[in-house]
Every structure is written in structure tokens, then in C-alpha cells.
Amino acid sequence: MTHPLPPAGLVATETADGIATVRFGHPKGNSLPGAILRELAAQVRRAGQDPAARVIVLRSEGTGPFCAGASFDELVAIDSPERGREFFSGFAGVILAMLRAPKFVLTRVHGKTTGGGVGLVAASDYAIATAGAACKLSELAVGIGPFVVGPVIEKRIGNAAFAQMAVDADWRDARWAHTHGLYATLVDDVAALDAAVDAMARRLAGFNPEAMADIKRVAWEGTETWDALLAERAEISGRLVLSEFTRSAIAKFKGG
Questions:
Q1: What span, in angstroms and rounded, lies between the C-alpha atoms of 39 and 218?
Q2: Minimal CB count within 10 Å: which of 1, 117, 162, 206?
Q3: CATH of domain 10-205
Q4: CA dihedral over 35, 41, 45, 50, signed as positive or negative
Q5: For residue 130, what are the β-bridge partners?
């Protein structure tokens, strides 16, 4: 039985058999308000340091979208560049926590993902998705851009594919995402997804933790300076979200 999510959303971690499963959810399409972002980063960091966990599984709740990206409610409430920078820095915090956890992050993508959600998938070490898990970077359509999530998406899928997503802010199907490396594995449905995620997590939990940490360090080489880079990007987004264009575009998206 599926229980309704609390209005503020949730982040929870369960650890068993060497697998730390970090779950997040929000009643509005698993969107990401600032409090969820901060707690998600904190729980990923804790799982990364937990000796009982050898692999981290990231997943979201429900049967709808995997992640609808930034919370529009919080975007419209931003009233200064400082608050804007603080909000977008939340995405930087989660991305950096995922990259720097000394364990593989395996992400279960059960449905569509937008904006910041694409950044979470890109920051994973391995993502498994269903055939219905379309994705898009919608930021330009609301007057901003995928600045904070951009570096990790570009590193994952390459400059050309990232530019296509950023400029043409429309849906790409799961096959496109798989072909370009955003999704490592594609399966038919949620039942197959759960089986694949469980099998991969159990396999990884049995591997040498030191070897996995070294593979991860090599794979993400070059990201060591991203604290400063993502802070700069958060400042850009924090400024743009105050523009009249963005205010109007978000109101239209919200139906206001």
C-alpha cells in the first residue's frame, strides 16, 4: 500500500546487506525544495561514511516522475540574488555529495525527470531506467539555464549532447538518454527495474570497497575544483530567477 507523502516531502535512508538506500519524495512530482536538497546531501554524505554501506542506491517515491526538478513554489518566493544563490547551491550540495561519496551511487529512474533531476542522474555512477523515463532540461523555457547541473551533465554525456538538451528545452526519450550515456541500462518496466537495481546493488556490495573507491576517484577526476565552479553557477541562476521574464514564465507553468 502506498502512503501519501507529507506536504514538506521526505528523505530517508535504510541500510541492509551492505546497501544504503536513500529515498526522497515530494507530493509535487518529487520536486526539490531547499529543505529536501539539504537533507538529501546530508544523507548521501552519511551513507558515504557509513562502514555498514558498501554501495548507495538513490531512488524517489511513487509511480509518477522520478524528479520534477526545482520547486516552483520556492523559485517564485526568491526575492534577492542572495536567496537565489542559496537555493541553487542546494543542487550543488547534492551533486558534490554524490561525486565525493567514496562508494558507487546507483540510481533507480522509474519515470520522467526534469532539470535538477537530470543533474542527480548524471551525478550517479550508474543509472538504471525504465523505457518511459524521458528527460529534459527545462530551465531555458523559464528564463534561466542549467548552470549548476550543467557541468556534471556535460561530463556524463559530452558537450554536444548537453548543448542540445540545454538549447532545445524539450523531452528526450529514454532511448536517447541511454544512447548518450545518461542511463547505463534501460529496462522495460518498473518490475524489471527493481530486479535490475537489486541485482546490481547486491553485486556491487560484494566487490572490493577500496577498488570501487579508486575507480570512482578516477572516473570523476577533474571535479576537485567544482565547489568554486558550482558556487559561481548558482550565483548566475540566482540572479536570472529574479528577472521579469522568469517570473512570468514560472507563473504560466504554475497556471497562475
A1: 27
A2: 1
A3: 3.90.226.10
A4: positive
A5: 187
